[in-house]
Amino acid sequence: MHVVIHDGAFHSDEVTAVAILRLSTPDLTYARSRRPEVIDAADVVFDVGGKYDPDTGRFDHHQIEGAGARPTGIPYASAGLSWRHFGARAIRALEPDLDPDQVSNMYFSIDATFIANIDAVDCGVDVPGPFRFGYSNLVGGFNPGWRDDRSDDAYLAAFERATRFAEQALRNLIRDVADGILGAKIVREIYAATPTADKAILVLDSYVPWSSVVTRECPKVQFVVFPDMGGGWRLRAVRKRVDSYASRRDLPEAWAGLEWQALDAVTGVPGGTFCHRGRFIAGHATRDGALALARRALADAGKRRG
Length: 306
Hints:
The chain is of the alpha/beta class and 306 residues long.
């Protein structure tokens, strides 16, 4: 597949558009040009050409009629058009074990939380969110500065570096969203199998992404015990909402900021490693020790209520 995008300074939308295609089309080639004969010879054209026609592989959004908008009102730019037509293919290429519903859920989730923000920046739409002044500026920073070499070759090399960066960012994002989908299934099964009397503490004997599914679907859980991928075990408080750091129940105030023997002296559970001063996470050397800390934290909260 041969892709054409415009030359000169580049932006995050067309860089990301090419990166999306690369994820599912390893033999992709591209050229940067505004010349009509170069555009006409391309299989796919992004961000130039004045036409949105998926049947002929034309995906510009600068023409007067644009290229449509999402139900939220955010217009489609090159990143969104690429994701709209090739995103599901990219997901399937990287995560072949997902079923069609999971692919569809991931597609819409990534569009809403990532791709739409790229399009909003390119189209001049103010949208709050972590990527509004982050990702797009990082990609734009690959352009040569005013004191740098600004030749066509320099821009071409810079665009390649930016596209590789965007490709890796997308790979990471798709992997993380897929991890969450597949991990949620495991968490639901463990929660369902946990006796009602013990549901305040969820124990995961191997690490899977749990925070979002527990916050949304497991209302009885106050603390989660799980192995840390760097060694040891962790005890973590469950958030009240997925978009908040506030916990359903904090760890005891007396534990805040303590480490090692100082923490053990307060908890009475030897083997503790730390308790964050924010009182949302603590560590222990063993599974049983982390579980004991969770039970102590529940008992402490019960005493304070009494």
